[in-house]
Amino acid sequence: MTRIAGGLIDRSRTLTFTFDGQSFQGHPGDTLASALLAADVRLMGRSFKYHRPRGVLTSGSEEPNALVEVRTGGRQEPNTRATVQEVFEGLTARSQNRWPSLSFDALGINDRLNSFFAAGFYYKTFMWPAKFWEKLYEPIIRRAAGLGALTREADPDAYDKGFLHADLLVVGAGPAGLMAALTAGRAGLRVILADEDFLLGGRLNAESLAVGEQGSADWARSAAAELAALPTVRLMPRTTVFGVFDHGIYGAVERVSDHLPAPVQGQVRQTLWRIYAPQAIMATGAIERPIAFDNNDRPGVMLAGALRAYANRWAVVPGQRVAVFANNDDGLRTAVDLQAKGVDVVAVIDSREGGALLPGIRHLRGASVVDTSGRLGLTGITVEHRGRRETLAVDALGVSGGWNPNLGLMQQHRARPDWSDEIAAFVPARGPKGLVAVGAAAGVFSTHGALRTGAEAARAAAEALGRQAPYALPKAEDAPYRIAPLWAVKGASRAWVDQQNDVTVKDVKLAHQEAFSDVEHLKRYTTLGMATDQGKTGNLLGAAIMAELTGQSIEATGQTTYRPPFTPVSLGALGGRSKGRDFKPFRLTPSHHWAKSQGAVFVEVGMWLRTQWLPKAGETEWRQSVDREVLATRASVGICDVTTLGKIDVQGTDAAAFLDRVYANNFASLAIGKCRYGLMLREDGMVYDDGTTARLGPNEYVMTTTTANAVLVFRNLEYARQVLWPDLDVQIISTTEAWAQYSVAGPNARKLLQKLVDQDISDAGLPYMGCAEITIGGLRARLFRISFSGELAYEIAVPARYGDGLIRALVAAGEEFGAVVYGTEALGVMRVEKGHVAGNELNGTSTALNMGLGKMVSRKKEAIGVTLSGREALVAEDGLRLVGVKPVNPADAMKAGSHFLKIGAAPTVENDDGWLTSLVYSPHLGHYIALGYLRDGARRMGEKIRVVNLLAGTEIMAEIVSPHFIDPQGERLRG
Amino acid sequence: MLIPHPLLGPRDAQEFVYLGDAALIDRPDGADIPTMHDYLYLRDNPAGEHRELWYHEQGDRSWLVVTRNTVTHEILKVELARDVARAKGRSK
């Protein structure tokens, strides 16, 4: 064991977990990485491409190497960073991308073959034969180059979405964030303090510094305790603010239960928060970067700050003999802290010349690490110092190439950061309005600087709200941060830049050689920064190496675009509750439960569930039910729920004029107590929607729309009355949900309804296309004599809460006539038999003329779409026309989706004569019938034509007929 | 995005439906085909300040004219489309 004294772990409790089947122990406060390091496990994964043995590089969410699969079954999650996964009792973790085992990985051969696997290798190697790519190359490559695997089991946990509002959002709870939240919280601002870590404090927990009279970690704990007690402050540990969106909206994911074996009853696994905060403080700290030198990726080589964090926070030293390689003062702290803890610090390799030497430590100035050794873990380093090479036996090496302000959030809106020579890093510039950077995230690296800038930003936020926020800073170190940039050490082998995607200095050189020098090209050519860590440790290093190659400055070379999310967000969190049955809400009609009790089969229409057909005992196949429903309706009477049709109440002294503008046909002449079929066009002249509109009074109309277009038509009506003709006196409101409506159709429809309706509904009392406000046993209702089926038919509407009662009353009243209840399939059969257009014909590319309704478009008035419906190509004499189609041999079954071809014409696009739009089996006629759009169709009645479906391989000889298969004179519906 | 609704204050953009260029207000009622064609199909697509029509569908059903910078998403002005249309001389 390499545990030392101290640390922020609870040694009073022991947690047992497994890694690759082997059992280990950790303590509350441990991450999987710290617990494994404490058990002398350095090898945690294999690299993406070369399958190189890898250990942990960092101590935070920027980790590129230590990716593991955690948990089992439906909760299994790949690519979890061991550096952020909290250890819990029973945790199971497995290494990834290795076979058969982590220490012996067969694909380690890729490492020996590395010269074949350089950047651009796939593009160059697998070019031909082209068809080999999909079938052969890609599957092999995908298997070899991989991360973790998905379980393919359903996730058993729930995920929530939530909304939060605050005066000030503070992202990051290090010294700057804590001080900002304290300053604002003490002044009474509504503050949210979010941090991705489970322990607030940031680097304060990783250092051996003092703040005020306390150790830095103790001060962080006191600050967090004070914040927790402030009534307007909300602390959100385990919460990553991953994205900055417009106008002060932030996306965050809270890992509510990721630290538990399973969510506590009633709790979710994660919550996706949308945080509204007009002001926000980015206190996200800094991320240390490595130095590229040969074989810098062995387990045991880690960032100096991480090495120090493991020692100070987790009481773990991942080695017995440690060295540090740094180009800045901060790296030296690691050597000092470790030595103070009694660790054998073999040497500090400092790339800078001159300056003071660390006391009591072998401190080599002007030196560098040029190579390392150790197959599955570091055993030694080769150091070059004053022209001499020396090999040192060490098993841990801390590397510090400097610190990059963690400025991703600030730059997500594409503003480019500024370069600072002083810290040799980019610092945030002009971010989104309301967001300011403080502390290390702003390039202010001392603890005092972090506390001061955090407090100042909070005071400014308070002042913007007209509040005072005085503060007093605790005493803290204000040491200068001195750095002399060193990016890559010259070498003969491979030096890693991006460890997760296996991008080396050689790859960057190759990209330059092949003219992919722009950082965005460099990224895509080498995959630098494209892994799950998004290059948090390697991106700047890659850009700096490219800058050296091109001779440009790093500032001019720039950085690739920062985009959300900052760290990966699970699809479960993004989906929230919207999965399975709850993916979207269902709308149910008032008689849904009655229909369900009758065994109805339902179909989704828009958001509605409609009865598709209603099987009777003994019916095993849908056609049996549908044929029965159709025949019974045409023979006697059928009842259909048409509640889902859109209903819009239109009132006002200009209501008639308004309808005349939005419908292509005339409405001004519609008499009170009458209905009319209306055709609505889009401004481009295509048919948009159709339906019946009834005039109930001088200034009162009720419009119906198709089920699917109800919302869109309403939107367009609002547009017409607010935007186009703002002074028309017309008010509209959707009443779709207010009325339950049923169609009663068939020769006995009137007889059935007369049993219920209080008024006279004889043909004289309510003629065809009439409408009336009636009563049913005193209950107010509406009756429309309209027909979609071609039969004598009515639609009867009652207030929605009486819908269930009405369907039962209708069915009871219909018993003596053998009434059926029919669904959308029978409805569809009957409308095709009658030649009515529906969704298949109203497809957004059809004009009224195409549908045979050209005469309805009135040229005598101004209405939406009328002008452009007259465009030359749209009014061509030989254009598509709606026709009926029936097979020459009644036994032939045409196929949906077929196209029309003249006899003898080759099946080419030029010869395409149109297509079949709606196909049904007509039980009435005893064969299939169809509607379709046929070129010059109106003049081709009686012509024989081929109905060809090349996909299904069918060809049926058919005859072109009128689309009105039944009762073309309309005698039934006027009966 | 947050859209400062002239009647309701700041509302989340998720409540709105976007239509497009507010030039659509200038419908040439009764115009010939070429004029109507140009009205319907020819739009500017500026990088910068843009006047747009938005509909508060999950709200009070107001059509709004939102003046927005398409580069920064900054919203400079929000008006009721009805007021804008009237100011442009549209009536019945």
Automatic annotation (TrEMBL), chain A:
<dbReference type="InterPro" id="IPR029043">
    <property type="entry name" value="GcvT/YgfZ_C"/>
</dbReference>
<dbReference type="InterPro" id="IPR036188">
    <property type="entry name" value="FAD/NAD-bd_sf"/>
</dbReference>
<dbReference type="Pfam" id="PF12831">
    <property type="entry name" value="FAD_oxidored"/>
</dbReference>
<dbReference type="GO" id="GO:0046653">
    <property type="term" value="P:tetrahydrofolate metabolic process"/>
</dbReference>
<dbReference type="InterPro" id="IPR041117">
    <property type="entry name" value="SoxA_A3"/>
</dbReference>
<dbReference type="Pfam" id="PF08669">
    <property type="entry name" value="GCV_T_C"/>
</dbReference>
<dbReference type="InterPro" id="IPR028896">
    <property type="entry name" value="GcvT/YgfZ/DmdA"/>
</dbReference>
<feature type="domain" description="Aminomethyltransferase C-terminal">
    <location>
        <begin position="881"/>
        <end position="967"/>
    </location>
</feature>
<dbReference type="InterPro" id="IPR013977">
    <property type="entry name" value="GcvT_C"/>
</dbReference>
<dbReference type="Pfam" id="PF01571">
    <property type="entry name" value="GCV_T"/>
</dbReference>
<feature type="domain" description="SoxA A3">
    <location>
        <begin position="493"/>
        <end position="575"/>
    </location>
</feature>
<dbReference type="InterPro" id="IPR042204">
    <property type="entry name" value="2Fe-2S-bd_N"/>
</dbReference>
<feature type="domain" description="GCVT N-terminal">
    <location>
        <begin position="592"/>
        <end position="861"/>
    </location>
</feature>
<comment type="similarity">
    <text>Belongs to the GcvT family.</text>
</comment>
<dbReference type="Pfam" id="PF13510">
    <property type="entry name" value="Fer2_4"/>
</dbReference>
<keyword id="KW-0560">Oxidoreductase</keyword>
<dbReference type="InterPro" id="IPR006222">
    <property type="entry name" value="GCVT_N"/>
</dbReference>
<dbReference type="InterPro" id="IPR006277">
    <property type="entry name" value="Sarcosine_oxidase_asu"/>
</dbReference>
<protein>
    <submittedName>
        <fullName>Sarcosine oxidase subunit alpha family protein</fullName>
    </submittedName>
</protein>
<dbReference type="InterPro" id="IPR027266">
    <property type="entry name" value="TrmE/GcvT-like"/>
</dbReference>
<dbReference type="InterPro" id="IPR041854">
    <property type="entry name" value="BFD-like_2Fe2S-bd_dom_sf"/>
</dbReference>
<dbReference type="Pfam" id="PF17806">
    <property type="entry name" value="SO_alpha_A3"/>
</dbReference>
Automatic annotation (TrEMBL), chain B:
<dbReference type="GO" id="GO:0046653">
    <property type="term" value="P:tetrahydrofolate metabolic process"/>
</dbReference>
<dbReference type="Pfam" id="PF04267">
    <property type="entry name" value="SoxD"/>
</dbReference>
<protein>
    <submittedName>
        <fullName>Sarcosine oxidase subunit delta</fullName>
    </submittedName>
</protein>
<dbReference type="GO" id="GO:0008115">
    <property type="term" value="F:sarcosine oxidase activity"/>
</dbReference>
<dbReference type="InterPro" id="IPR038561">
    <property type="entry name" value="SoxD_sf"/>
</dbReference>
<dbReference type="InterPro" id="IPR006279">
    <property type="entry name" value="SoxD"/>
</dbReference>
